[in-house]
Structures are given as structure tokens and as C-alpha cells.
Write a structure and sequence with these properties.
- This protein is of the alpha+beta class.
- It is 47% helix and 16% strand.
- The chain contains 18 helices and 12 strands.
- Strands 6, 7, 8, 9, 10 and 11 form a 6-stranded antiparallel sheet that branches. A 4-stranded antiparallel sheet has the order 1-2-4-3, covered by helices on one side.
- The radius of gyration is 35 Å and the shape is elongated.
Amino acid sequence: MNVQTEKLENHIARLTVEVDLEQLEKAKKKAAKKIARQVNIPGFRKGKAPYRVLANYIGEGAILEEAVEDLGNNVYSKALDEAEILPYTSGELQDFKLDPQPTFIFTVPMQPTVEMNDYTTVRVDYEMPEVEDDDIKDALRRLQEEHALIEESASPAKLGDRITADIHGFYVYDDEDSEDDENTPDDTDDAENSTDESEGDDESSQSEEDDEFQNAPLHQQEAEIYMDEDREPVPGFADAVVGVTPDERREFQLTYPDEEKYGDFAGEEVRFVVQVQKVENVTLPELNDDFAARVTEDEREAGEEAPTLLELRARLRENITKEVEDSYKSEYVESVMDELVDVATFAYPKAMIDNQIDSMIESTAQRFGFSIDDYLRLTQKTMEDIHEDMDYRESAENYIKRSLVMRGILEAENIEVSDGQIAAEIDKVLSQFGEQAETYRSLFDTPEMRDSVTNNLLEQQIIDRIVAIGRGEEPPAPAADAAPDAEANTDQPTADDSEEAEAEVAETDES
């Protein structure tokens, strides 16, 4: 058997395989016996008709077709081994030629590859946000509000109260700015954000007045606003609504401070239209040790001592710090991954993109409880439309590249998980069940669960290494109990393991 390999576009290999005529003749005789058992030939029992009789009865072409299919499967498998081709999915017989020698021509989508290149030189600034005292103060204030005494009031609102209102905001422009194309009002936004509380002539007058403003994306329905300087949406808002009563409408203009935290609104003058629905008096509980005991009552186990206010503050700082660190780490990993993708070189077949799009559609449909057919009817698209949609294709390619980068780091960094690490992680999970831990241990004593734990640990190590690369840190030393033959799934993603690959990077992509 002679095998010639040619690499085509889209990471496809073409295998041209020449076989001996003798092999084909043996395959034809085998095919003839198989066909003879399936047809009735007058004068012969099934399977007993001679080759020449069968060929005359059903035609030589039918025997050849069966022989080519059977022999082709065998030839294809051997050709892959000889050519050292790793297929991503099943290949396809493109052509078969008898002259001058029996020749099979296959096309094979190849396993994706990634060259990480100088990935260790990637650097991204790492600036972990600090937890400020104001963050702790805000957290305590939210706890106070959750346990506050709320009483609806018919009296005019005062500082410290809470109002429920529809709020509409409009950018304010002078005549010169309003003529600028860049600041031309958007009719669609106007329709969405215009108020409808006024009636008759007032409504008409208000509509004409709103035409002089550019709608700002501030529209809220039944927003609860605490009337104090710490919680107001823009400085001056609380003072502007002091004295409002239920069902009152109030309009005023405020200028956002030119500060980064206000984003697109920084420095902008905005006209607010506030339609008040409800006014409530808020009596906050006093910050003391009794308050700390009260707000942690549901969290404490039986007999556990209640924390003091000081200990509650420390706990809040610890929790907020972890939340900030986890959030920033996710964002940081995304930033480094973007750089790693830019540095790497990828090769993958088109079939991989199509399979990933199918997986995306299936996951989206399942998330909303739809079948794929229901999802297509809802979106008024066909699968062909979706596969041709550039947004879907770009999302699929982005996922594939990130998945390959993670696998590339796994291999390049020789990341492994030891038996000791797996056991420690299982113990950590079981500890959540308290006295019932050993009862649930048998659930983890299966290959599937151990593989799941292993993949989770591998993913975390990859993420930690991505952070270290971005910060320019040296890789950590191998764990003392690391087994040199520790099992790690380093195969490239295939059509059959798309869901497993998605699970390995879900947290990073979701972020």
C-alpha cells in the first residue's frame, strides 16, 4: 500500500492510497459472498451462487461498489497510521480509481493544533483594586437597610426617607449642540424613555419640550431611591426631591461631576423627570453588637457564639476582599487570554467551527427550556442562517482559540494533578456535609467523578499559570507528591468532546 499525503486549506489532509489489484480482487470476492446471502437467484440457494453468476445477475458494478466500501474502511484506517494523521472527525472518500492501479482518495479534517510561540513573554499590568473603608461602610449600610423598619408615609419626603418613583433622564443641549449630527436625538430612545404620566395639553406640551433634549440611558421603572448623599444616583438628587409627596411629579436639572466613576455621564447636564409613587420612612437599626448578632443569626450553627460588631466588620472586609479579588482575577485572566490568543498560531478545520456553533445553539436552547426547533422558530432563522452568521462564527472561533490556548499551556507547562491533590479536593468537598461526609464519599469513588475533580483542578492550575504568565512570575515548583504518571487529559478537542471542553473553560468565558 502506497500512501501520499497532501495538506489542503482549512486544515484538511488529502490521502491518496494505492492498493494492489490482488487486494481489490479479494475484497470483491468477499463482497460477492455477502451480497449472495441477500439476493434470490433462480436455481441457487442463498449464498451459493458462483461469482460469475452473481455478477451477471446483479452487475459487476454492484459488487465493486460493496468491495470499495469494505476495503476503503480498512485502507483508511491503515493510511491514517502510516501518514501519522490524527483526524478531528471522520474522513470522506472523495474518489476511487481503477486505472492504472486501484486508488482511494480520502479527505480528512485534522485535529486542531496550536503553536504557543513566545507566550511566556506576554505581560499585562496587574493592579488589584483595594477594599476601602467606604466599601465596608456601604456593606453595613445595606445590612441596616435589609433589617430596617419601613413605614409608608403620606407626608412630604425628607432626607433619610426612601421614595419609589419612575425616573427619566434627558441630556440637556443648547441650540448649537442640538444641531450637531453627533448629538441628534435618537427617535427610538425617545419613544422608549418618554414619560406618559401627563395628560391632555400637558402631555402635548411635555412631548414638544422633550424634543429639545437627547434621551439619556437613565430610564428606570419603580426605582427605590434612598434620600441621602451616600446612596443618591447623582450629587444633589436627594435635595432636589425633598418635600415630594406620593403621586407628585417633579422636574429638575443636575450636572454630573466630571469624575470617572460616572462613566458617560461625567460632566453632563441632565434634566430629570421624577414621578413619585410612594414615600417611606426608614428607621435603621443601630450599629452595635446586638445588630451583629441579629444579622448573622441565620448563618451561625447551633451553639456558635455571635460575632461582635468589630468581628462583623472584619468578616465583611474579608468577604468583600475575596469578591473583589475573584472578580478582578477573572477580568485579568480574560485580558491575558486575549494577548495569548494574539501571540499563538492556530490551525483547525472548518468542521470544528460548525460543531461549536451547533453546541452553542443547543446550549442556548436548553438554557431557556426550548428544543432546537423551537429556538429556530423563535429566532426565525434556519441552522444554515446561523452557521453563516458572522457573529456566531466569531464567537465559535474565539471559544476554540481560547480552548486551544488552555490546552497548549497545559502541555507546555507540564501541568499535572497528583493523587494527593485529588484526595485533598474530595475531602474539601465532603467537608461541607459535616457528619454525613463519609456517607457521600462513595459518590466520588467512581472514575467519572474523579475525572471531573481532576479536570477542575487542572483548569484552576491553568488559570493560575495564566495569571503568573501575565505578571511575569516563574512557574511554581512541582508538588512534592506529584506522581510522574499522573493522568491528565491532554488530547486536542474533537467533535465528540465539545461539551467537555466547554466545561473546562466555562468559568473563564462566562466572566
